[in-house]
Specification:
heterodimer; A: alpha+beta; Butyryl-Coa Dehydrogenase, subunit A, domain 1; Butyryl-CoA Dehydrogenase, subunit A, domain 2; seven-stranded mixed β-sheet; two-stranded antiparallel ribbon; 20 helices; 57% helix; B: alpha/beta; Rossmann fold; N-(1-d-carboxylethyl)-l-norvaline Dehydrogenase, domain 2; 33 helices; 46% helix
Amino acid sequence: MADYRAPLTDMQYLFREMLPWKLLHEFPGYQDLDADLADAVLKEGARFSEEVLAPINRSGDEEGCRLEEGRVHTPSGFPEAYQSYARGGWPAINCDPEHGGQGLPRTLSFLLEEMVCGANLSFGIYQLLTQGAYHAINIHGSEALKSTYLEPLASGRWAGTMCLTEPQSGTDLGLLRSRAIPMDQGGYRLTGSKIFISAGDHDLTENIIHLVLARTPDAPAGVRGISLFVVPRLRLNEDGSPGADNGVTCSAIEHKMGIRASSTCVLDFEDAEAELLGELHGGLRGMFTMMNLARLSVGVQGIGLAGAAYHAAVGYARERLQGRDLRGPRFPEQAADPLMVHPDIRRMLLTMRAWTEGGRALVLRVAAELDCSLQHPDPERRRDSHEFVSLMTPIVKSLCTDIGFDVANLAVQIYGGHGYIRENGVEQYVRDARITQIYEGANGIQALDLVGRKLPEHTGRNLRHFFHPLQSDLESWQKIPELQSLVEPLAKAFGRLQRATGQLALKGLQDPVQAAAPASEYLRLFGLVAIGQSWAQMAASCLEPESRSNPAFRQAKLDTAEFYMRHILPQSSSLFASIMAGADALEAFDEDAY
Amino acid sequence: MAIRKVGVIGAGVMGAGIAAQISNAGIPVVLLDRAGKQGTASLAEQAIGKLLKSKPAAFMSRRNARLITPGILDEDLERLSDADWIIEAVSEDLALKHSIYRQIAGIRKRGAMVSSNTSTIPLTALVKGLPRSFKQNFLITHFFNPPRYMRLLEVVSGDKTSARGLEQVLNFADQALGKGVVRCKDTPGFIANRIGGFWLQCALLEALELGLTVEEADAVCGRPMGFPKTGVFGLMDLIGLDLMPRILDSLCSLLPAGDALHAIRDIPPLLSGMIEGGYTGRKGKGGFYRLKISAEGRHKEAVDLRSGEYRRPEKPRLESLRAAKAGLRALVEHPDRGGLYASRVLLRTLAYTASLATEIAGNIATIDQAMRLGYNWRHGPFELIDRLDSEWLVGQLEQEGMAIPPALADAAKKGGFYRKEGGVRQYLGANGGYHKSTRAGGISTLSDAKLEAKPVAANAGARLWDIGDGVLCLEFCSKMNSLDPDILGMLVQTVTELPKSHRALVIHNESTNFSVGANLGLLLFASNIAAWSEVEGLVKAGQDAYSALKYAPFPVVGAPSGMALGGGCELLLHCDAVQAHSETYMGLVETGVGLVPAWGGCKELLGRMACNPRRPRGPMPPVQGAFEPIAEARVSTSAAEAQEGGFLGPRDRISMNPERLLADAKALALSLASNYSPPEPFAFQLPGPSGQAALELAIQGFHRRGLATEHDVRVAGKLAWVLSGGDHGGPCSEEQLLALERTAFVELARHPDTIARVEYMLENGKPLRN
């Protein structure tokens, strides 16, 4: 069975050498943050993931969740693991110290999330939703809501959910039907049915706080009439402790392709006591606060699974002996050479490595800007960072979850027939990864968000935060001879991205279909270039004389960068051709002929 | 007998404004009023002083003030003895008017026309008791305020008015003063104020009744309905709140008892209270809106219609406003209070108008024209009825229990007040038949040409129309007529294709603004993605298109009206000649967004300055001459001023009447077409770095005095570098100068401060001073 090892060395390198430390230290409260502190946290996170979470990953998958008498039971070992997770203070890692949190930056918590999800994605989902609820209440909630809910959420005593989907209303939230009726004595009573609610019910915490989208009686139709409500599973007593049932029942759980240890519920709300969160009819905004953070986190899940799959595949390719090196036996004393000697296996391994490490570096870059957008003292700087994050969110979500699936799939390929066998564990990565491309806004929706909203906003100002730094990076790298072989293909791909962006903007103005049709390919092209930039940045850092990483590590980075530029980045050429071909061939095909 | 001299009696706002507009036509005017108080200038002299300071400017060129001779009515009446037309513009006092007419009758030259600028008093009352010879030369010419800018002129003639004299005045008003002349029947308030007064009062009362905020009312009863975007409350602030009761009183005192206006004439206490308190609008202490200047700075306030107190503005949030995007019907049929408001105001106003169809004018098209020109409605009332559908309107009126005016019933039966027949628009006449509108000779607009035929060529940004006699007309149709690759492409295509079938090109459109310049959105987007080669490509494409136009084997005449800024101005500079509407506002404003003109604007303006024989010789004066207007982003406030500033040259002409612009431009193009040969390129002799240094010195001075920001200095420096010939100076070809423009443009476009300026301009519609 595949064991899990957290990619600690790579994470430590990224944290030590790729972070804008000067910038982070400008934030209030971050003056004392340094790589050593981060090191200690990362090491402890790696230990927890490897020793506590990884061992119950496959058993959880086999056992799945059970619904008994209206309550969901998570698989064996999950409640205990969750207790120890909460005791370790992990849920509060990036929460406000005011609510008992540790106030650590996103840059760090994303890396921890990656380890948790790489070790056990199902487990990671419970904590992701709790985090989302914490931040939504922290940003949009009244003081009363904050003082009631934030400490228990941060401490891990309570968990959270986000309840959007209804049977008739998935991606299209305008179709929502759940109702919230205002009460004379204040507050609301909420009634409706929600489906696909992750962590909707479970036995990990003493209470569950649902954030629910619903309509008030006089609300306008469509998305402008949606409000967000806080609905605890158990009503709160005067002292804030959980009391009686609040009319929230789990009537069914889904039987899924993957993340089987994560409970996915049908929740029925009947006259449940609810409190308004944020503005009346402004529910979408509150929900998007959660969703935007969650989208980045889902990208992190993809990288987590990719890292796990890569680690397993490398181990297998070293151990498994099959066939001989085409240039003659490498280990004549053995019956066969290890898989590793075969070019196609190496191609797959390097592809997996280049995507995974590149994606991780990209996530960290976005996380640093996210921290900046939340913490920087200068409002203009915060705005710029926010715009960068908002541009990159659909790219991180979509590209990194594709990476998760593709890399997991390659791991199965390297394992061959053994990969297809449940006991060996890698097929679970494929099944688990599959959902990340779908939930929190399917990847196609991410692409539409990118071209339909993020591109045109302020006549392309979001783009400036990506294109201008890359342009000046390229100009400075061009002066470094050792980087030439990397910079040239990157500059070419950048040019393609510029032209494709111009084309989409121009055509999209006249006809939105012209921008929507190649949106997914455009997002991928954008992501290819963004990860290319991350690789060039890593290569440049490995050439720095004062780099503290060991020479073998640096060489591996440089070689992987080279592989990425020569063998993966050229995909930009075919994507470009397809994007420029527009929507005509798509539209020409007769719908009846499908 | 042409009109060569005019007299105006009464130097109030209207009389003085009329005198100014006559001077704008280049015609001398005598302006008479009473003597001033002891020791002060005469009222007419004072009026001229006020005119020179008025905003918006009354004079198209300050020099025109010299064409007005002020005088005192009782002393200088003789000065009117050689006037061809005498306009009485005194207060609405019949006895006073009569006494003036008697005075005029004594001194006017034989056949000289006399008219009154009355807004309410019928002609029959004005001429009562006057000799027949006076009646023969008398008419009403009702101007709208301000006379330079409001195009409507309502004309009422009596049955004794001589046809020849009348025609003279009409021609003069149309061609020299640029007015849209509308013939009215002799009824109180004529056309525009009768309907407009009803509309304003109705809109005011309904807003109060339905409990709308002023912001809501103005958002509904404004742009979505094709009314001025100020809305009714904003409009009342402009015209003066105190004018409302006066208009209503004077109308109601003359209208028959059954007129619907009587039923709504009462002035609500809120309005009378505001007037008493001096809150008469922009001219007073404030109106329904005011600009509050407090410790926190300047902010707008609006009146709460319930309490009458000022409060912070409230953004209107009405579902009906969103629905209005689907059309007028969607707005008036919307159930919220915005929709209800729209429907009540429209129903009543349109029903009232339809009931007057035959009473106040010869035909409905006249009424529509009066409301378009006099109240700036986008569509006249009968056009609005057609947009709503006359049958639907009848149904609505029936539901409300309102009477159906016969004209409306007829239109509902026949399918509308207008129809298109054989490429011609026809209106429904009182006799039940459809008729073609008759217009003064020489008027032919692009709309006419467009009704008749399909464009010769078209893309998303421009269309090409055949306007007859071998002339094509290029029309922009992009957003705000901003110049984009589509338009440039059409220009290039026209240069190659036109000679195969045609002789000349006119560039013209009927939008409010000829062109606001290059599409900054494209530039900003390209800048945001660091696509600098695209930016340079965009610049080069414009230069190539404009050069192709300049050296095309046929004459090109630009025919602008409104703003012609930046790239739009550069385009005109490349034309063989320009036939400009008098209200043309030209300027190279690129420095406002941190750039320099680079579609040949520097080159062409420099060339013109160099060709000006009145400038001193040597390389520096033309450079100086081009530098100042560009560095200051100066915009002319009229075509006359553009001429004085060098944007229009000796071959360029001005049309006062925009409806004559196209025909005038076409005639000019045809006059150039015989034996046409393209112009010789400029060969510049430029001062080089020494010239640049001299210009920069001046800029540094501004900077030190806090009048120019650092980026202003940077931009002006680049401009100086281009205009003085770059790094070397000496002889310089057009191509070399264009290359300098490109280099400077792209360099500036990359600067973050320029990007910030461009973005600010696009998002806020005004320049950023960074």
